[in-house]
Amino acid sequence: QDNSFEQFIINYCNEKLQQIFIELTLKEEQEEYIREGIEWTHIEYFNNAIICDLIENNQTGILAMLDEECLRPGTVTDDTFLEKLNQVCATHQHFESRLSKCSRFLNDTSLPHSCFRIQHYAGKVMYQVEGFVDKNNDLLYRDLSQAMWKANHSLIKALFPEGNPAKINLKRPPTAGSQFKASVATLMKNLQTKNPNYIRCIKPNDKKAAHIFNEALVCHQIRYLGLLENVRVRRAGYAFRQPYEPCLERYKMLCRQTWPHWRGPARDGVEVLFKELGIPEEEFSFGRSKIFIRNPRTLFKLEDLRKQRLEDLATLIEKIYRGWKCRTRFLLMKKCQIVIAAWYRRYA
Predict the structure, then answer these.
(1) Out of 45-54, 68-77, 174-183, 294-303, which region has the weakest mean confidence (pLDDT)?
(2) Which residues form the Myosin motor domain (predicted)?
């Protein structure tokens, strides 16, 4: 219920993670349909880049305003920081303050004078400005760093490299907000170079008990994790997609015309295969390089048919092998019988 500077930067990190989740899943999903020339209904989803900009913008962002208050001369308090926010962020649609120039919040008695509220993608969060400036400064005086660097203990000395007299930096140390912002930027850069897999965990209740589901808690987490937009995009599009070559290679055994070898373009082979299997046209679409299947049950049907076909092929191979083995044994016995009979007639 009481949120200060620590929760603010944690929520900022959550916003950045949600942003990259949107870019790597929802946005990429829709862009692939456009790339492949697939006709479908565009799904609108909330892009929280506007909230990230409210917090991290280098000129008008909340972190920039906080750093400016920490560095400027004169009397600096949490109230002066809130006043600056009221001036710079007053018209932002995701920023709310009791003293804001935007009159729609002047009568909001649920918002104290010493607080501001941000409408995050998961909901509104109110922050107490008390302690923001002191926590953001996070200063360690230079003489203390030098004293710790001179310690005989190697670990303590290693924890304070800035105390080394040979590396004295007269610049003001970076604020906690700036350090955290730089760390988040490094994390985002690292994630964008990877191929992430998302595992979404839902906590059913706060009691850590089985068979208890708190509906309000579960619904809040679903909204907070952005699952609704993801499900909407998936349901509006296609559940499965695969390039033509591996698709034909996997299911070509289901059609006489494509088995055992298809002579021609892989896309034509997939078209012949799906037509032979009688799959409804509304269940799939042909892209420029991939086949798109709308419902999972169609894919399950293909897998069941393939499994049954593999069993039939295994039975056929076993039948042919057993026939060959028995015939070979019969011919060998017949040859032996002729030889034995010939020798018997000679000496009879």
Answers:
(1) 68-77
(2) 1-307
Residue 66 has pLDDT above 50, yes or no: yes
* Ranges in the chain annotated CATH 1.20.58.530: 5-138+174-193
Contact 116, 130 (CB under 8 A): no
Every domain range in the chain assigned CATH 3.30.70.1590: 240-347
Q: What is the DSSP letter of 3?
A: -
Report the distance separating Cα 90 and Cα 234, nearest Å: 37
Q: Is 175 exposed, middle or buried (0-12, 13-18, 19+ CB in 10 A)?
A: buried
In sequence order, what are the residues at sequence separation of 6 or more whose Cβ sits closer than 8 angstroms to the Cβ of residue 179? 138
Q: At what angle do helices 5-21 and 49-56 cross, to 10 degrees?
A: 140
Architecture of domain 240-347: 2-Layer Sandwich (3.30)
- Judge residue 334's burial from the number of C-beta atoms within 10 Å of its C-beta, 0-12 exposed, 13-18 middle, 19 or more buried: exposed
* pLDDT tens digits, 131-178: 888 888 866 666 777 888 888 888 988 887 777 777 666 666 778 888
**Mean pLDDT value of segment 13-19:** 87
Question: DSSP states of 22-42 as a string?
Answer: IIIIIIHHHHHHHHHT-----
CB crowding 148-168: b at 16 or more within 10 Å, else e: bbeeeeeeeeeebeebeeeee
Q: Does domain 5-138+174-193 correspond to CATH entry 1.10.10.10?
A: no
| pLDDT tier, 103 (very low <50, low <70, confident <90, very high otherwise) | very low
pTM for the whole structure:
0.65
DSSP state of 253: G
Pairing of strands 115-120, 123-128: antiparallel
94-108, 257-271, 315-329: which has the minimum mean pLDDT? 94-108
The rounded percent of the chain whose pLDDT value lies above 90 is 13
Q: What is the DSSP string of 160-229?
A: -GGG-GGG---SPPPPHHHHHHHHHHHHHHHHHTS-----------SS--TT---HHHHHHHHHHTTHHH
